[in-house]
């Protein structure tokens, strides 16, 4: 038995903690006070078919009972729900919040009230709480079982499959399958059905034809059987009224409408007619009004007809209700989201190990190195993710900090994880770098192993280069430092979680400081390996001492005008390709320019070409133009820095230029000679015409977007990675699609859920601009940002202000290329 004011744990079956964030306009506002008087037990049947007994004062109103139930369920978005009971005429009647419970319910001691979904929004993505979506899914299950939700057999089978998966999950031999996303898929399918949320009320027209009336978010609907034959939008309805058994729909005057201005329907009784009229009033107020209608003053002498007013928040007020979101919870949610992605990365490495185990060409030393490096990490982070999900499931849904406890902290989990990782990380993080070197050496020694790795990289599940996955433990350490740093800045020193977070942060910073020099070296090596696969005409690019400084597009001035070229700036040498991407998705390197003795000067006035500059070296000149002034400044800045480095190294060395022998022949050929360029192609193990290569690498994106990235950009991108749910706006409608999005390697990768094995689509962000969605764009939603490049425009919506700022921060790191002088201005804000 549940009494008003007692602590309830019913919501914990979904992992929801106790909360005072019930349906109210004021943060932390409690349910109405219980009136004095004797307590009467009232039974309420919940949507999961469990029955609860609430002790309510015999003087209490329906609002007291309803919000007591919401508090018992830890339900925040309670405005979509209601209570109903069976009247003496065996009709299901709503319990209105303004009516006293004892007067309305016939025999309250023996009446069972049902907790049901009352308002069905057309867009299920407006339901923000996991518990709300779960209760809606239970309502759909009840409607489907009772025959109220009618649909075709294939749709019914699809709904049932989602219901079964939500209960028992998919069979996976290696791990337990989470099922919460199935509720979302269930609502996604159900909301597209015509009978979703429809409650039919028998009626007849003037000719006596049997019909059914229903009300939905858009207006009043008319059905014949289960087929909708007419609908009246709220904008077309002037007035709804009833007179005895007749329900009247008065339409606005419209010369083009051949129907009558007043439609009349005959219902079974006056009570049925009045009940449907009240439902229409509530639906109209909830979905059409901006705020709860104010009560009209009562007439002094007498009143004519029935009066009824909607009591509660409107849908707009529910959506716009900004509860005081705890930043610590949002940080914990970000940690959970990124941890899920990180564990997926480790699982991909495990999959790669299984592929290698089947090959005889793989050295045993390499197999041992991979297993000893990543298996301990995979085991640890699998356990850590389970603990994190349990903690967040208890923390889920908290919108204020009035209820505090052990569940509202993260430092203890992170400190425990970091202390366990210290033993593993000291060895495994250094071995992650060694795995990249060892794998490359083995691929050079075995053409078969090289083909195996290339084919694995071309699979959908390997959405970024394989070496990036191998380095993910190093990158994850940087993310832990950022998470802990935000928590320490958020908490006051007196907070119970501060000491654990600070201790964990100190340990992570020590590990990062020890590994930072090696991280920069291995990241540069990984980029060189990636470029080596993208380039034709250069051998052994990834050698000791070689550093990538910038790569991107410039337009070269020639006799035929400006022609797009791909440039690659290293310490000591500048390379550029002739005609861009070949049939094998590679770039043909045409020429090298040594940096020793090179001079750079602006030449816009000299040649009349905007944003152009001239490179002079060895009595030869090369005029190039950038797409913008900022791009020109960044190229000139990095070129001058590289030239200074070459001068300090006392001129060109054999280490830097000796491996570019395949370019010697092409240097003396005409750049406009197509056949000459073709004959300069060199096959160095990965340049076969039959070989396929990735077409979404950084170099390819720079070519298509006519932009560039620098070494600093890569460094910033390593620290700015994010995962989580985003709502994407459909291009041709006002609907929104919920997606799981991973941002890494300058690209957004889109999934249905975080459990999907591979992305459905990707969006490289180099060249894009990110801005706030303006009022003139008619979005009418909060936390919306816009991505646009030329005519391509995308709108995305986040769940809260915190995640809006986080997504804007990480996306800006990819959409605006960095220069050395601007790097300090582009660090993450506090």
UniProtKB/TrEMBL annotation:
* Organism of this sequence: Cyprinus carpio (Common carp)
Q: Where in the cell is it found?
A: Cell membrane; Cell projection, Dendrite; Cell projection, Filopodium; Cytoplasm, Cytosol
Gene3D superfamilies tied to this protein: 1.20.80.60, Dbl homology (DH) domain (1.20.900.10), Phosphatidylinositol 3-kinase Catalytic Subunit, Chain A, domain 1 (3.10.20.90), Pleckstrin-homology domain (PH domain)/Phosphotyrosine-binding domain (PTB) (2.30.29.30)
Annotated Gene Ontology MF terms? guanyl-nucleotide exchange factor activity
Q: Where is the PH domain?
A: 547-644, 719-816
SMART domains noted in UniProt: B41 (SM00295), FA (SM01195), FERM_C (SM01196), PH (SM00233), RhoGEF (SM00325)
Checking InterPro entries in the record gives:
Band_41_domain (IPR019749), DBL_dom_sf (IPR035899), DH_dom (IPR000219), FA (IPR014847), FARP1/FARP2/FRMD7_FERM_C (IPR041788), FERM_2 (IPR035963), FERM_central (IPR019748), FERM_domain (IPR000299)
Locate the region Disordered: 667-692
> By its UniProt entry, which PROSITE patterns does this protein fall under?
DH_2, FERM_3, PH_DOMAIN
This chain's protein is named FERM, ARHGEF and pleckstrin domain-containing protein 1
List cellular component terms (GO): cytosol; dendrite; filopodium; plasma membrane; synapse
List, alphabetically, the PANTHER family matched: FERM DOMAIN CONTAINING PROTEIN, FERM, ARHGEF AND PLECKSTRIN DOMAIN-CONTAINING PROTEIN 1
- Compositional bias segments (type: Polar residues): 677-689
Where in this chain does the record put each DH domain? 327-518
Q: Which domain of life is it from?
A: Eukaryota
**Which stretches make up the FERM domain?**
40-360
Q: Which UniProt keywords apply?
A: Cell membrane, Cytoplasm, Developmental protein, Membrane, Synapse, Synaptosome
User: Which Pfam families does the protein's record reference?
Assistant: FA, FERM_C, FERM_M, FERM_N, PH, RhoGEF
Q: What is the lineage of its organism?
A: Eukaryota, Metazoa, Chordata, Craniata, Vertebrata
Q: How does it sit in the membrane?
A: Peripheral membrane protein
